[in-house]
Amino acid sequence: MPKLSGEHGKIIRAEGEANAREAVSAYSDGLPGLYLPGTRKRITLRHGMSFHELRQVLMELGFREGRHLNGFQSFQEETSGAMVLLPEYQKHDHVLRIHLNTLRKLLIEKSLVESV
């Protein structure tokens, strides 16, 4: 696996690969690792994951599923006050990248996970 260095979201240098695009595709999920704070327990948010998988991750992080309203469903984590509003996905629907990336940013900002 190539060694990547640089700022979050940007690849400045990919050692051991012909180009950065190949280096990014070498990661199975395309997203940097997330861990529970103070632990090495990995939280997986990967491109192409199903809504069912994402729901399990949210439940593991302490979110509770809220109401379904006007085509959206909500999840809330009481300690941090974090709230996630997603379109009503079906159980096996793939979650859009924009929703995963936005969720990832929220989880980091609310200190619910740590980024590597």
What does this structure look like?
The protein is α+β, with helices and mostly antiparallel strands and 116 residues long. The chain folds into two domains: 1-30, no CATH class; 35-115, Metal Transport, Frataxin, Chain A (2-Layer Sandwich), CATH 3.30.920. Helix content is 25%, strand content 26%. The protein contains three helices and eight strands, in the order E-E-H-E-E-H-E-E-E-H-E. The strands form three sheets. Strands 4-3-8 form a three-stranded antiparallel beta sheet, covered by helices on one side. It has a three-stranded antiparallel beta sheet with strand order 5-6-7. Strands 1-2 form a two-stranded antiparallel ribbon. Strand 6 and strand 7 (82-87) form a beta hairpin. It is globular and about 35 Å long. The two termini are 16 Å apart. Residues 1-29 have low confidence and may be disordered.
Topology record:
Elements: E1 3-5, E2 13-15, H1 20-25, E3 34-35, E4 42-43, H2 51-60, E5 64-69, E6 72-77, E7 82-87, H3 97-109, E8 114-115
Antiparallel strand pairs: 1-2, 3-4, 3-8, 5-6, 6-7
The gist of it:
The chain is α+β, with helices and mostly antiparallel strands and 116 residues long. It is 25% helix and 26% strand. It has helices at residues 20-25, 51-60, 97-109, and strands spanning 3-5, 13-15, 34-35, 42-43, 64-69, 72-77, 82-87, 114-115.
Summary tags:
25% helix, 116 residues, 3 helices, Metal Transport, Frataxin, Chain A, alpha+beta, 8 strands, three-stranded antiparallel β-sheet, 2 domains, disordered N terminus
